Amino acid sequence: MEQATQPPFTLDGKSALVTGSGRGIGRALARKLTACGASVMLTDIDEAPLREAAAEAGERARWLAGDLTAPEFPQQVVDATVAAFGSLDIIVNNAGYVWDNVIQKMTDEQFQAMLNIHLVAPFRILRAASGFLREAAKREAAAGRRVMRKVVNITSISGVDGIAGQAGYGAGKSGINGLTKVLAKEWGRYQVNVNSVGFGLIDTRLIQPIDKNAPPTIEMAGRSIPVGAPPAFLEAAKVACPLGRLGTTEEAAGAVLFFCSPLSDYVSGEVLIVSGGARG
Fold it and tell me: Does a structural domain hold residue 2?
C-alpha cells in the first residue's frame, strides 16, 4: 500500500507583501501563496484589478491600492501588512512597467520613471520593513529560535544581459540586482534570504502584440505609456527560445514561489534567470 506523501512545504502562518499584484505575475503569485497557506497583502496602483486579484486569492488576502513611487506609500503598505497579519515574512518587489526608447530619444522623465519604480520603490519598501525584520529576528534569536524570512526582487534579462531600447528599464533592473546582493550580506544575520528572479519574455500585457491601428498603452501617473511588441518580434523570440514559446504568468510565479518557500532557506544573494533558456 502506497503511503501518502507530504507536500514539499507549507506557508501556514506566514504573511507576505506582493507589489504589483493586481495583474500578471504578481496576481498569479498571490494565488499560489495563499494556496500554500500564507496570508498576503496585495498592492497595485489600479484599484479595480486589485480588488479582483484579492478576491481570487481568497479569504487570507488583503489589499491596499496606491502609487509605490510616492515617497510615503511604501511605509504605509508595510505598516498595513504588519497591522493586518501581525508579521511580515515574505516581501516580493514585483511592481513595474516598461517605458522604452533608444537613448538619444529617452527623456530625463522616462529614465527617472524607470529607476523610480524598479529600484527606488523596492529600496523604500525594504527600508520600511527593516525595523520589523531586525527586531523580530532579535526576539527570535533570544528565544533560541531561527525563523527564515524572504525577500524576492524581480529583475529581467534586460538588467543582466541588456536589451536595446531599454536604457532606463535595464538600469533599474540591474540596480535591483545590486541591492539584492548587498542586502543578502546585510540581512543574513537576521535570517533573511534575499534573491532576485530575472524574467525573459513572459506573456503579460506589457508584451502583447502591437496592433498598428490601435497600439496598446497603459495609464501611469496620467500618461499613456506605449507597450507591446511587434508580432514579428514575438515570433522571432519564440524561435530563438530553446523551449519555443513565451513563458506564462503561472510559470513565472512558480519560480518566485521557490524563493518564498523553505526550499530556498540556504540560498541567498542569487539571481535566477527564468527565460526558457533564452538570453538577451
Answer: no
Give, in degrees to the nearest 5, the angle at Cα 162 between 93 and 70. Answer: 35
When pLDDT is averaged across residues 68-95 and rounded to a whole number, the result is 98
Q: Is the pLDDT of residue 3 over 70?
A: no
Percent share of the chain, pLDDT over 70: 97
What's the total number of domains in the chain? Answer: 1
Q: Please report how many Cα atoms fall inside a 13 Å half-sphere around the Cα of residue 41, on the Cβ side.
A: 28
CB 117 within 8 A of CB 20: no
Task: Indicate yes or no: pTM above 0.90.
Answer: yes
Domain membership of residue 190 (yes or no) is yes
* Tens digits of residue pLDDT in 224-250: 998 999 999 999 999 999 999 999 999
Q: In what order do the strands lie in the sheet with 61-65?
A: 61-65, 39-44, 15-19, 90-93, 149-156, 192-199, 271-274
Sequence-distant (≥ 6) Cβ neighbours of residue 218 within 8 angstroms: 97, 205, 206, 224, 225, 227
CATH number for the domain spanning 58: value is 3.40.50.720
Per-residue confidence band for 211, with pLDDT thresholds at 50, 70 and 90:
confident
Partner residues linked to 273 by β-bridges: 198
Task: Look at residue 148 and give its three-state secondary structure.
Answer: coil
What range defines the domain where residue 245 resides?
Answer: 15-274
Grid coordinates of 244: 519555443
Q: Which residues pair with 16 in a beta bridge?
A: 40, 90
